[in-house]
Amino acid sequence: MAGSKAAKRSLRTYNYDLTITQYDELSPFAMLVRTSVFVNEQGYKNEFDFIDENAHHFVIFDGKKPVATARVYFDALMETYCLGRIAVLKDYRGLGLGEDLIEAAQNYVKDLHGRNLALHAQVSKMSFYERFGYQAEGEQDEDEGVPHVWMWKRFAE
């Protein structure tokens, strides 16, 4: 485990103690959330890949329960850091956890002196990422039959 960042947040009508924990390898906690969201809910079959071995993983916990996750990795062909596999359990959506993951990932990349961050967004989720300054670039493609597009955010020097 590389380190952790704790944040207490007031969500809806009650308080949670939320902790963002970072891992240098795919943790079973991230696997649990991704399986629930991408495999069970969305029907993806090839959720885990070789990128997981070299990615930096973020997991948000509600107490001891993993409730959200994302990963960041460097793509040598694209010459940029990439953010992906952002997943929040259904009961925790709309509480700002996706935003927390994006902020944590962006700070991580900035700490590594990265100048931009790319993500392969589901087209149906583009407006979510646009709120954080990501812009679509290139043609739409598909990932297991789901329309996706590459989006980029460039950081100020």
Automatic annotation (TrEMBL):
Keyword Transferase: yes
GO molecular function: glucosamine 6-phosphate N-acetyltransferase activity
Residue span, N-acetyltransferase domain: 18-156
PROSITE patterns (UniProt xref): GNAT
Superkingdom as given in the UniProt entry: Bacteria
Alphabetical keyword list: Transferase
Pfam families: Acetyltransf_10
InterPro entries, per database record: Acyl_CoA_acyltransferase, GNAT_dom, GNPNAT1-like
PANTHER family, per database record: GLUCOSAMINE 6-PHOSPHATE N-ACETYLTRANSFERASE
The protein, known as: GNAT family N-acetyltransferase
Taxonomic source organism: Agathobacter ruminis
